[in-house]
Amino acid sequence: xxxxxxxxxxxxxHKKTTKEMLSLLKEEFGLKIKSHxxxxxxxxxxxxxxxxNETTENKKNQAKEDKKxxxxxxxPEKAEKKPENNENISENKSSNKxxxxxxxxxxxxxxxxxxxxxxxxxxxxxxxxxxxxxxxIPESISVKSFAEKIDENANQVxxxxxxxxxxxxxxxxxEFDQAELVAxxxxxxxxxxxxxxxxxxxxxxxxxxxxxxxxxxRPPVVSVMGHVDHGKTSILDAIxxxxxxxxxxxxxxxxxxxxxVNINDKEIVFLDTPGHEAxxxxxxxxAQSTDIAILVVAGDDGVMPQTIEAINHAKAAEIPIxxxxxxxxxxxxxxxxxxxxxxxxxxxxxxxGGDTIMVEVSARTGDGIKDLLEMxxxxxxxxELKANPNRAAVGIIVxxxxxxxxxxxxxxxxxxxxxxxxxxxxxxxxxxRIRAMFNSKGEPISEAGPSMPAxxxxxxxxAEAGDKIFAVEDEKTARxxxxxxxxxxxxxxxxxxxxxxxxxxxxxxxDGKLKELxxxxxxxxxxxVDAVSSSFxxxxxxEVFVNVIAGAVGGISESDVLLAQASNAIIIGFNVRPTxxxxxxxxxxxxxIRTYSVIYEAIExxxxxxxxxxxxEFEEKILGRAKVxxxxxxxxxxxxxxxxxxxxxxxxxxxIRLLRDNVVIFDGNIESMKRFKDDAKELxxxxxxxxxxxxxxxxxxxxxxxxxxxxxxxxx
Length: 716
Fold this sequence. Notes:
Elements: E1 4-6, H1 7-13, H2 18-29, E2 39-41, H3 42-73, H4 76-81, H5 84-125, E3 135-137, E4 140-142, H6 143-149, H7 154-163, E5 173-175, H8 176-185, E6 190-192, H9 198-206, E7 216-217, E8 221-226, H10 232-240, E9 257-263, E10 266-272, H11 280-288, E11 292-298, H12 305-316, E12 321-326, H13 335-343, E13 357-360, H14 369-383, E14 386-387, E15 394-403, E16 407-416, E17 419-420, E18 424-427, E19 430-438, E20 444-445, E21 447-448, E22 453-459, E23 468-472, H15 475-500, H16 503-510, E24 515-523, H17 526-537, E25 544-553, H18 558-567, E26 569-574, H19 580-588, E27 593-596, H20 599-611, E28 617-634, E29 638-651, E30 655-660, E31 663-675, E32 678-679, E33 682-684, E34 688-693, E35 704-713
Parallel strand pairs: 3-6, 8-10, 8-11, 11-12, 12-13, 24-25, 24-26, 26-27
Antiparallel strand pairs: 1-2, 4-5, 7-14, 9-10, 15-16, 15-23, 16-22, 17-21, 18-19, 18-23, 19-20, 19-22, 28-29, 28-35, 29-33, 29-34, 30-31, 30-35, 31-32, 31-34
Helix pairs in contact: 1-2, 11-12, 18-19
């Protein structure tokens, strides 16, 4: 098999930068190289390698001559003693010898240049299918595109296919094996196209290993893992003295959050990753971006399914585990039972002769929390965590979402270097210049060093959670890498689209052997899209195929309903709501929209629907919507929303949601309702009034209020 090298590999081999190598190949050899990922092979590679070998040889010869001259300079007296005529003879001989050597080198050089010139002319005559002149074909290609690739008449290609027993039209797809046989009929050789992963290219080009001398100690990044409702966020609350758990539906953490804590003048960065099974992928990302895992196990509950998954993820990421046995304030808590159960998964407590640190804590009373933190610092010290702060920043996207007012927002965990505001950055297919940066407390900052979490504004699109982010020197570089990744994504979507139209995929459905449930997923943050989609896909069985045809961030819009109508899909929203237009369109076209605030309820509903075991359901009936026109702060009553009812009516008894950009901010009860100065039982369409929400004051102009009630009904 012919030897092949990519340009960046060739540059590395001959100790040159990729830029220098590209310049040399274009100027010295006249090769049409497109990028650092282009392939060099065959005669081209031989000539280039010969050039470098010759250069190395010349350097060696020059070094020998220099050494010889230095020796001769050291013997001037002996040369003076020789007769004058002998000196002339010697000089002539030396001169002739040098001239002969020089002529010989010149001839050799000319011969090489002629060879390169011929090769360059031959190359320009070839079809530009690839940098090395070969014809590259993907795994599947349309007849029309294939004909263009091999520079042959499409009708002739169709005739050759017919001769092989393949009946295909211009727009039909043919496999590589079929294309190869046709190409041979035209005396042409084709090769299979190898797809380059642009995300990997970014990492290869924009990251590098630092010298040991440039490294400095960095804070540890700790991932808090465990089963749902075992007290992960409560432990963080005890550490940070905050109350995040009460702000999330069902008390379950559903977004990855990052925060910095100062302990004994040392910083620790905590990632609070979700514990529910649906967030397996998010938890996996959390483990891979951290140094230490705190595994929270409830003393009264013991090892549960998500506890085991958390252990597996931490082990896969090869990070040490510290076990926090929580809820020790409860009488029924039994730490020995927990330790016994954990031994089955390779975690043996230190006091049982093992090497796993286990700390008994109570998030409610605060007991053991200080010991837990001291253990974290001890493990961090043993690991000698270091990074180079004085270089272009490399980090990981922890979470990303779209904010209507601020645009694309991303939470970044810096891993190497220092990220500055105004830096140009690229992550996957998104790029941009950082407009503003905030720390974990929401305060503006100008830079973030290794292990520091930061929220950044300025990306062109919503980034992919889990992707690497790189600081680059200018906008051109950032756009170059982002555009390549975007183009690859577009191609992949086109391939997926063409695959869904293949008849053989639907044969089973048409025969009644396979049924398909199409789902469109809309969520409030990016990381949840993947988790929800993955959970639904796992529900597929032998009889029903669950197909998540689209997943995105934001409220449910009219375009989502149109897509659902075209693909016979249902729409599932997680912590988002449909627009008024989308609701009307869905009702007119009999499109089902289901919204949830806790993900496992959605998964259970879909699972039951697949099994045909749905229990009597509680149907949600939308009563009306109102627009917040202004807000008033009333002493002893909190924030009151001055609203105009835009559809239906808002009864005082109804449940109410506060929507901001169609994302649910509050879901609860109405505390007060007034029409002018009088208490009111209901606000009708077109009327204005004042509404106060129960234990909620974060109301802003432009928000929408949606009134609804729950009605029990039998499923059909």
